Task: inverse folding
């Protein structure tokens, strides 16, 4: 479904991704973990071309992705992204936030829009907030709306860039619950996160990144209980201690 | 010393017509400058077309670093040197528009720049085009940001219209001068007209603030 | 467009330009001093002291410069005060500029967090010491870019004095035009003269703004 081949990415002189390859199958949930600065978020953003790769290939659904604007936009409708800082549109109501994509990019007629948005609001448990504005919602509620906004485009896959890192601890659960629902429904997902328990629960495969490379990958039970690499062990120890 | 405050009051209709002229001029100039200034501001923000960016920058810098009065004289008195003779009102409107577009372009540019990059990323990630992103996500937010500066610019335009009195455009300042030469009640007239301008600027500022509250309600944003 | 006609009168133009520069420097100096003091007064707690200055600032910021020039230049002789063109111009620019600068200074001072005042008070400093060593140095950092921006505006505003007959560069330009009949050439040169002064100053202000933002 998603095939990233040998991705290299530099910001100026700093090489952040040093040849990263990853394949994600349909319906698979892949979680990427690793220390700060390992390039996890950058790699995720290369998938939907929010970051341009310096070298390497991005294949979505068997099609090689060029830089052609129309093709990229098409792809972005099919791959949703949820950001750490939510990035909801503050000047639009919750309803309009979710409806904007379908209305403009998909040209959906008004009745279908109503249907889509209502069902998504119900799915994330925020039907009563449809006329509210982002500024009036808590972080957890905003992030759930952000997820609904991406889902409104009927994506084939979803990317999550540290979806709960900006949230107060007590709000994290409600967002993770929504993401878990998507997983059980068979959505293809790539998630960058620091929530280790969540990663363990939800993933089909865990990828560990450090210093711009994938140092280890495998099923969650294996990675979390018996990692092979010293670097992975050190990282997990530092994170588990905090939990 | 005998002050005749009735003179300006008796001539209120004459002066109020001048005030109406002033406001009419201001609205026309503001509308035109806003349109032109927004276009320029977007070009200046966008950097992409190097030629357009260069021209826009040159225009903005030249206009902002030369006096408005000289610009007005260039258009009204200068162009006839090349056979282009414009009526005073037209020349005045063009000159004030040229002048204010440059300042508005910078306001618009700054207003777009402060918008969080994540807004553009989120728009792209749901598949909106550049144009859709600008029209529905960026510009509405920019408009909210720049409203106070725009209010200020509007007042500056009101004051700018006084320079058109040098072209004998019958706005408020010119009418004050004419009234003075007819009645010689100098201090009364000019104090009165000063207070009229003060009243106009206060009223316009209040009206614009009302528009701001009504159409751009404060959607208190905890950044997301 | 050949500028030889203008070139023939370059001395006249230069004289006018010198007057412009002179007037600009004086206007900047007087308005900044007066505006600074007014700004300080506006931050005082005494409502009685502030009131007349608040009115002054409101009116002079809320009305156009040209009308203020007319009011003083034509009005003072009318009420029996003999005032020269030079005195009028300096007086009006001082009042006009002073009002705007007072606002700039006032908002600069009020942007300093209350905690600074409290810390100074708890160290036993009096008002003058607090202002001199703690508040004003910080406030000036905030106020300097808008202040300099306003100064550049004053330089351009000196052109308005030509309307009441002040012999700065625009007025001299009009005289040259009457002789040479080359209005465009003359005004273009005058515009360029202003540009040569104002543009470098604007760039300086921009770079100063960038520096205060990163500091």
Result:
């Amino acid at each position: 479904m998603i095939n990233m081949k040998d991705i290299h990415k530099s910001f100026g002189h700093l090489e952040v991704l040093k040849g990263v390859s990853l394949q994600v199958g349909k319906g698979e949930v892949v979680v990427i973990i690793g220390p700060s600065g390992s390039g996890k978020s950058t790699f995720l953003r290369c998938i939907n071309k929010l970051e341009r790769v310096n070298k390497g290939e991005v294949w979505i659904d068997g099609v090689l992705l060029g830089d052609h604007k129309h093709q990229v936009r098409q792809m972005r409708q099919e791959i949703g992204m949820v950001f750490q800082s939510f990035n909801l549109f503050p000047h639009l109501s919750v309803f309009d936030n979710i409806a904007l994509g379908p209305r403009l990019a998909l040209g959906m007629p008004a009745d279908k829009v109503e249907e889509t948005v209502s069902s998504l609001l119900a799915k994330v448990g925020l039907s009563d907030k449809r006329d509210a504005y982002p500024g009036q919602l808590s972080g957890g509620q905003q992030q759930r709306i952000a997820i609904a906004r991406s889902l409104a485009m009927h994506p084939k896959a979803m990317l999550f860039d540290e979806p709960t890192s900006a949230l107060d601890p007590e709000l994290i659960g409600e967002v993770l619950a929504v993401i878990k629902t998507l997983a059980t429904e068979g959505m293809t997902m790539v998630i960058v996160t620091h929530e280790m328990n969540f990663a363990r629960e939800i993933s089909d495969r865990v990828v560990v990144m450090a210093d711009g490379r994938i140092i280890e990958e495998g099923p969650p039970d294996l990675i979390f209980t018996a990692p092979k690499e010293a670097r992975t062990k050190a990282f997990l120890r530092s994170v588990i201690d905090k939990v | 010393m005998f002050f005749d405050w009735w003179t300006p009051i008796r001539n209120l209709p004459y002066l109020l017509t001048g005030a109406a002229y002033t406001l009419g001029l201001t609205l026309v100039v503001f509308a035109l400058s806003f349109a032109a200034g927004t276009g320029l501001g977007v070009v200046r923000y966008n950097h992409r077309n190097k030629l357009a960016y260069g021209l826009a920058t040159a225009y903005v810098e030249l206009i902002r670093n030369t006096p408005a009065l000289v610009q007005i004289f260039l258009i009204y008195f200068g162009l006839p040197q090349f056979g282009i003779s414009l009526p005073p009102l037209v020349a005045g409107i063009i000159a004030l528009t040229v002048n204010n577009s440059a300042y508005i372009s910078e306001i618009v540019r700054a207003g777009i720049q402060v918008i969080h990059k994540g807004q553009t990323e989120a728009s792209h990630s749901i598949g909106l085009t550049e144009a859709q992103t600008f029209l529905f996500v960026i510009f509405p937010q920019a408009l909210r940001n720049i409203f106070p500066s725009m209010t200020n610019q509007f007042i500056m335009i009101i004051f700018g219209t006084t320079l058109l009195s040098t072209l004998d455009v019958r706005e408020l300042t010119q009418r004050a001068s004419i009234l003075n030469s007819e009645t010689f009640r100098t201090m009364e007239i000019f104090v009165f007209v000063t207070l009229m301008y003060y009243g106009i600027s206060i009223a316009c500022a209040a009206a614009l603030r009302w528009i701001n509250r009504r159409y751009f309600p404060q959607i208190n944003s905890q950044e997301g | 467009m050949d500028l030889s006609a203008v070139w023939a009168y370059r001395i006249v133009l230069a004289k006018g330009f010198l007057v412009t520069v002179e007037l600009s420097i004086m206007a900047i100096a007087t308005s900044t001093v007066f505006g600074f003091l007014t700004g300080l007064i506006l931050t005082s707690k005494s409502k009685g002291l502030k009131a007349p200055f608040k009115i002054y600032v409101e009116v002079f910021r809320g009305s156009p410069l040209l009308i203020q020039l007319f009011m003083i230049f034509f009005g003072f002789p009318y009420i029996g005060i003999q005032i020269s063109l030079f005195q009028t111009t300096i007086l009006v620019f001082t009042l006009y500029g002073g009002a705007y600068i007072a606002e700039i200074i006032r908002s600069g001072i009020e942007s300093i967090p209350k905690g600074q005042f409290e810390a100074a008070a708890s160290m036993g400093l009096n008002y003058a010491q607090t202002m001199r060593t703690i508040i004003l140095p910080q406030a000036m950092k905030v106020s300097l870019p808008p202040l300099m921006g306003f100064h550049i505006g004053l330089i351009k505003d000196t052109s308005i004095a030509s309307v009441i007959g002040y012999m700065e560069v625009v007025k001299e330009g009009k005289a040259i035009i009457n002789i040479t009949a080359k209005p465009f050439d003359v005004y273009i040169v005058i515009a360029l003269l202003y540009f040569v002064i104002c543009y470098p100053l604007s760039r300086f202000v921009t770079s100063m703004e960038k520096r205060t933002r990163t500091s």
